[in-house]
Give the backbone structure.
Amino acid sequence: MPAPHGATCVFFETALWERRYLARAVRPFGVRPRFVNTPLTDDTVAAARGASMLSTFIYSRVTPPLIKRLRGVRLIATRSTGFDHIDLPACQRAAITVANVPAYGENTVAEHTFALILALSRNVHKAYVRTAKGDFSLEGLQGFDLKGKTIGVVGAGRIGMHVIKMAKGFGMEVLTYDSRKDPFLSEVLGFRYATLPELLRASDIVTLHLPYTDQTHHLMNRDVFRLMKRGALLINTARGGLVDTNDLVWALDKGLIGGAGLDVLEGEELVKEERQLLEQDFSKERLVTALKNHILLHRENVVITPHIAFDSREALQRILDTTVSNLAGFLSGTPANVVTQSRRSRPA
């Protein structure tokens, strides 16, 4: 059964402005909100006591042991499109419905994708650092035009399609790799579908717009980097786990690729909170990944932003509005944007 009207929802990973907005937005639906500014973890799970609904973001790792402690919770509404941070089978076994925000920032992420591309193609990041020090020399800052270059879009979903439209506006040739093909859109937008090896060999820029799954884990690895056009750029605004960090450093060292623009990193939570490296036990592999990320941070041909591709005022507003709708739908017995739903948690 859905949660009763007047249920409590605990919102994790919330900023002050989000708390103010959500407190007003859920009031008409009788939802009693509680707010936690940090992720849902073993240390903060006590805040969920007595709640029937939770709302999390991507840094809440909802694992099977944690799910066992969520007594009485019937809905987890993640404020993200991706849901790889939530163990869906464990939620299903625990009769917890999971809902997401399937569309909120297609243009937002696509715009950030081109911000990274332009930072690399025109050396914006290097020029800024240099001029901030009072050095106005042009040495080493020559860039290249996007017009006439080929961009390979790996993943042609909502975000990928926005990237394709923007690329055509720059006068670029577009190759696309996706398991599902839409010949009509291909003709209208003027792009061509290709196999992944074909795309890699022909593209001056390769940009990733795939979900993170077991099948896409380390899609970009040493063998794949060998296929890329020498000197090409890699852009990742999707998920860090799509790229093998160790192999990316290797490809950059070998000069196989000319640079990388990364809004996401494998194991980025360790980079964001270095104290975790001292306070928790991590595998050698994860520690090596964290070290490699630090190596990337200091490379001139790598631009890294802290997972902000989604982070525009308009996109965040859409996230909150959809989350409130997800809560209201669940309360009324008509859940929306459901990722997984247990039979026991379905409305009668």
